[in-house]
Amino acid sequence: MVELARKPAVLEVPATLGALGEIAEFVLRLAARARLGTGATYRIRLAVDELATNIVMHGYRGGEGRITVLGRSGPDGVRIVIEDTAPAFDPVAGRLPPPPGIPPERRRVGGLGIHLALTSVDEYTYVRRDGRNISTLTVKAEGTDDVCPPRP
């Protein structure tokens, strides 16, 4: 079980490409607060960025919408919850691992980003509740040799 702060940090942004930077900064602040190493920080940022981008591009399809990001951090890692009201989409069902033996230039476009996102986190769950897509991602802290120094 990952030990995390009791009260989550919350960010709510419009579902636009321009808001992806705010989401990334939010994730990076949580990772720094948890003193995640560079590898764990990269993995959680990659996963959240990929899922948020998919919400904007494919969920809302450029239409009006909001993305809510809740985050908790602690000495054991970071947990991020991403919520939206776009049409139902379970990333696990939409995940396409790369087909073995086929060169990248001959592979079908799409689905690989979700695969990378979900395989980069330690835990992932999806539920559809009350008209909302709710994705929960957890990255555990790595060994102490890769931990960021304490913040002043």
Automatic annotation (TrEMBL):
<dbReference type="InterPro" id="IPR036890">
    <property type="entry name" value="HATPase_C_sf"/>
</dbReference>
<dbReference type="Pfam" id="PF13581">
    <property type="entry name" value="HATPase_c_2"/>
</dbReference>
<keyword id="KW-0808">Transferase</keyword>
<dbReference type="GO" id="GO:0004674">
    <property type="term" value="F:protein serine/threonine kinase activity"/>
</dbReference>
<dbReference type="InterPro" id="IPR003594">
    <property type="entry name" value="HATPase_dom"/>
</dbReference>
<feature type="domain" description="Histidine kinase/HSP90-like ATPase">
    <location>
        <begin position="13"/>
        <end position="137"/>
    </location>
</feature>
<keyword id="KW-0723">Serine/threonine-protein kinase</keyword>
<protein>
    <recommendedName>
        <fullName>Histidine kinase/HSP90-like ATPase domain-containing protein</fullName>
    </recommendedName>
</protein>
<keyword id="KW-0418">Kinase</keyword>
<dbReference type="InterPro" id="IPR050267">
    <property type="entry name" value="Anti-sigma-factor_SerPK"/>
</dbReference>
